[in-house]
Structures are given as structure tokens and as C-alpha cells.
Amino acid sequence: MPVGLIVLVIVTGLIFFGLAHRVLDRLRLSDGMALAIIVAIIAGTFVPDIPITNRIAVNIGGAVIPLALAVYLFIKAGTTREKVRAVVASIVAGAVVYGASKVMPAGPEESQFMNYYYLYAIIGGAIAYLMGRSRRSAFIAGIMAIILSDLVQAAVNWYTGLPGKTVFGGAGAFDATVISGIFAVVLAEVVGETREKLQGGTAKKDMEFQDGRFTEKVGDENDE
Predict the structure, then answer these.
(1) Which residues, other chains included, contact 62 with Cβ-Cβ below 8 Å and sequence gap of 6+?
(2) For residue 52, what is the DSSP state?
(3) Is 33 a residue whose pLDDT tops 80?
(4) Of the candidates 136, 192, 54, 36, which has an alpha carbon nearest to the alpha carbon of residue 144?
(5) Which end of the chain has fewer CB atoms at under 10 Å, N or C?
(6) Highest-confidence range of 92-96, 104-108, 134-138, 184-188, by mean pLDDT?
(7) Global pTM?
(8) Could you give the CA distance from residue 224 to residue 86 in angstroms, rounded to a whole number?
């Protein structure tokens, strides 16, 4: 079973059993909206790629829907600071993924389970979290990292005259674009939960340790 499908099945199960409610709240998504998006991504995977030019095409499930979700979350971002972080994180993560694609093998799958393309998703998701910090910023940057990397490669191919066609989100629901965004927000949630526990658990999640005691925090970037 492909990695992308495994991830989507796990996410769907977490949503169905109400275990992802906290994360979805942070992303300003309801359970119904999240499930509808997953269904749309999977369904869009089987729609033929839409040609933009002779050398560029997009997949609805792998690129169009994730990009639309990223734009929605960007609009819903609570502060200008968070929006700036999302933009900066997207650019940095995209640059790192593009650089990785130049030094890592890009050939056939290593096995039926994992290939190097998913490593780009992991790299993109990790950088997206480190730079984005909040759940929304990390998710946006995780998606945009892969899209921007593909965009740069398409521009390089066009400028240098290299042959080849760039298909954004070409693997659909199994594409690195989807996996990168999910991985980034999972990192943000796990690290955020760990920080809360180290600061005293849920009873003190809105407090910060200062001058030998817990005081009320003014905004928690990981709760945005």
C-alpha cells in the first residue's frame, strides 16, 4: 500500500473517531470539512491532469485542492505575523526541497513502500514546521514547499530548454504535496503538546514560566 494512501487512511480514522478534533480546531476546520477535503483529494486524483501549457499540467487531487486549502488557511490566519511566517516558511522550505532534489536520487522507487519522493515531503514538512511554528503556518508551508519546488524546476526547464513535463501534484492523493502538509502539522501538534506538558500540562497551557512562577501568556504561537 503506497505511503500516501496509508497516511490518508490514518488521518481519516483519527477524524472519524474524533481524535483529531484539537488539530482541526487550530486549522479552523470542522470534522465534516476535513473529511470532505480528503474525499475530494482522493476523487480528484482520478481526474485526468489538466494541461496548462504543453509542458505544465496540474492534478486536481494532488495540487489544486491542497493549494486551495492553503489559501483558505492563509486567509483565516489570525495575525499578520502568522501570515508573514507562513510566506517565509513556504519560500525557505521550497528552496530546501529544490536543493535536496538536486543531490538526492530521483529514479524509480526503492521499494513498493517508500521512494525518495516521499523524503522530499518529510524534508519539506520538517522545514515548514521549524519556520512556520503554528499549525496553520506549518501546514501552509508544507504544501507550498513542494509546489514552489516544482514551480522552480518548471522555470529552470523552460529557461534552459531541458525536455520534460512538470505535473503539479502528479501523484494525486499520494503526492508529496499532500504528505508534506500533513507531516508539518503533525510535527507542530506533537511538539506543541510536548511543550505544554513540560510547562505543566493542560491546566497551565495558557501560562508561561517566568521569574520562578507561571504567569499568563500573551499568545502562544503553537496555538494559533
Answers:
(1) 41, 44, 45, 168, 169, 170, 171, 172, 173, 174, 175, 177, 178
(2) E
(3) yes
(4) 136
(5) N
(6) 92-96
(7) 0.76
(8) 12
- DSSP state for residue 49 in the 8-state scheme: P
pLDDT tens digits along 192-211: 777 767 766 544 444 443 44
Confirm whether 214 is domain-assigned. no
DSSP state of 20: T
> What is the tally of structural domains in the chain?
1
Range of the domain at 195: 3-202+219-223
DSSP string, 179-221: HHHHHHHHHHHHHHHHHHHHTTSGGGTTEEEETTEEEE-S--G
**DSSP 8-class letter at 168:** E
Assigned domain for 207 exists: no
Q: How far is CA 57 from CA 63, 170, 208, in A?
A: 10, 8, 48
Distances (CA, A) of 163 to 21, 56, 106, 166, 205: 45, 12, 16, 10, 53
> What pLDDT was estimated at residue 30?
80
> 191: pLDDT confidence band, cut at 50, 70 and 90?
confident
Is 145 within a domain? yes
Residue of 88 and 191 predicted with greater confidence: 88
- Nearest Cα neighbor of 180 from 74, 67, 54 is 67
